[in-house]
Description:
Helix content: 55-70%
Structural class: mainly alpha
Mean pLDDT: 75
Largest sheet: none
Keywords: Coiled coil, Protein transport, Transport
Radius of gyration: 55 Å
Distance between the termini: 173 Å
Coiled coil: 182-209
GO molecular function: SNARE binding
Protein name: Vacuolar protein sorting-associated protein 54 N-terminal domain-containing protein
GO cellular component, one term: cytosol
Low-confidence stretches: 456-476, 495-499, 509-530, 532-551, 558-563, 625-658
Order of helices and strands: HHHHHHHHHHHHHHHHHHHHHHHHHHH
Amino acid sequence: EELREVREQPIDPQAEQEMIDSIEELYYSNDSFDMVQHELEKLPPELNLQELEEYRDKLKKQQASVSKKVADLILEKQPAYVKELERVTSLQTNLQLAAVICTNARRQLSVSKEEFTEASLGLLANQRRRQLLTGLLKSLRTIKTLQRTDVRLSEMLEEEDYPGAIQLCLECQKAASTFKHYSCISELNSKLQDTLEQIEEQLDVALSKTCKNFDVSHYTKVQLAYTLLGKTQTAMDQLHMHFTQAIHNTVFQVVLGYVELCAGNADTKFQKMQYKDLCTHITMDSYIPCLTDLCKALWEVMVSYHRTMQWHEEHDKQDSSHTPGDAAESDESVVDRSYVKKKLEHGLTRIWQDVQLKVKAYILGTDMSNFKYDDFIVVLDVISRLMQVGEEFCSSKSEVLQESIKRQSVNYFKNYHRARLEELRMFLENETWELCPVKSNFNISQLHEFKFMGQCRSPSVSPSRQAVSSSSPAQDELSLFQQFLQEGNPFELPTEKEEETEDVLASNGYESDELEKNVYQDYDSDSDVPEELKQDYVDEQTGDAPLKSASRETIRSKKRSDYNLNKANAPILTNTTLNVIRLVGKYMQMMSILKPIAFDVIHCVSQLFDYYLYAVYTFFGRNDMPVPSPSLPTHLGRDAGPARVVGPTCLYESSGLGLISSRLRTTLNRIQENLIDMYESSGLGLISSRLRTTLNRIQENLIDM
């Protein structure tokens, strides 16, 4: 009754919700919760009747709120309950119908079982077994074929058909995975895996062969094989490793061959040496051939790398043209192509750096200070061509090569210049200061040392090949890799042609023997000529005859006078002067090749001239020399006897002209301090006692006379 009264009392929904929320969580935990026990345990030790009644009223209100809430929810869900009850009733009817159908089916199956005989069922069983055996036979035949594929794979590898071998091996692996439920297939799978690894090893060997002798068809097969394996990036990494190894092995074998050849024995100690130590055993005679072969071998490696890059560029273009914007092209192929391109571009600098380091070790392994001039020029020529290859290969300035050749050049030129000064001193000691008979049209370009100036040169063309390149200007426009891409080698030294003889000296005082013959030849053959032709001649243009015919003596005198006039215009040279000019030509040629030390070379050229000027002044221009007699011949003619060069300095000074100016004195003092004294202190002694004796002899025999 109390509960009914409580339920019937109107309660505010919000207050009712607050009453429900005040219920402890334990009442919602599970069905096994003992609420009576829980409430009894909550009673205090000392009971208060009024508190107990208040707490009881609170519990009753909570119970009434819950009951009312449940009743409201039941009323709210009443339509759904009715609808679900109808569905249950319908499901019960359908189940009854299904039970009837099953009963009828079982009855009909029992009838069918009675009507069929065991013979007909046996026939079906045999047919099914036959189909299974037929499938098994096909599987066994496939397995037998798989087991025999190793023979075919070996044949393909011998034929270097790597793509076909890999394709066949992958197909066999795919087929073997289909029949993996057979026990014999597990062994076949491991065998195929071993075969595939063997193919990869042979493929790596085939890839290494392209580093020296690049073959398009061979490289195409190798790349296609790596593509089938899905290892394009791995192949590129391996290729760069092989190129590095090829450079090391190539240079070592070339240098080792020359060292063993020069040693003359089969001592194996050289094979155990490091490459840098091996380069120190190269002799001077074999240095240039070994350097040439070294550069040839390195060229083969670099041109193979260049052709490799060309192959990838062409195939990238073909792939792009065949599938423009093809969505089927996988992202993996695009990534592989980009990786290969970047790897090849970065490999250019790496390979050229390896080449430079190997050649640098060879250059610095030998002291070239005692080389002949022509041999040293050949070395510079080869290195210059190698630096040109580096410029075209990867746009490198070849700083490593330049630094190494600069070190050797400075060392060589220092000794070379010292020897030339000593040679010039010997020339001055033995100089008679007589006129050197040269032709009237003499020019320094006629000397062998200045031939390089008249050739059409390009900064990238080495001196020894300028003559060859000038004869074929069309080839100059092509790079070295374009000229020698398929065959040939830029480091093959041209066959030495016979040196052109210098035709600068006059013969017997004349320009040539033919001129002398024309001047002094007796015209004995004139007896066979008619008299009228001896006396007169007819002008071919006018048809008139001259008033008087020229005699043979008149013609001879005219020729002699013309020759003397040309000879008077010829330059006045001595043997020492000609030698200094030749040295200047050699130094200029070295400047054109050795641009890093060109300043040092031009400084040495000025030393040559300073030394020659100082020597000439010492011989002929000193103030303590007597004034030459005015009656001495001051010109050098053909009939003036032996040519003697006389210095007029004292004569000019005595006349007050002051030829020896303060500027000249300053120059002579500079030469004395910076050149003569410096070399005398170093032990060379440019003004030697013999040279001083020569000076005294010239003063006694020429000036005093």
